Amino acid sequence: xxxxxxxxxxxxxxxxxxxxxxxxxxxxxxxxxxxxxxxxxxxxxxxxxxxxxxxxxxxxxxxxxxxxx
Length: 69
Description:
The protein is mostly beta strands. The chain has strands spanning 6-13, 18-23, 26-30, 32-35, 39-43, 50-56, 59-62, 65-68. The strands form two sheets. It has a five-stranded antiparallel β-sheet, with no helix packed on it. A three-stranded mixed β-sheet has the order 4-8-7, with no helix packed on it. A hairpin with a 2-residue loop joins strand 7 (59-62) and strand 8.
């Protein structure tokens, strides 16, 4: 069975002094990220200026570490 892939992106959140991962209309504040899928950079004219984005099947959070698969 092929799982559907959804867009994700992550960036540094300066006010929270942590990374944020956005996946399926949810925002997760994490300390570290393990990205197991290909991602690309995207430059924005407004903040956040640089985000990493790609497509993933799921995102799991365990003890402040996001694993993107």
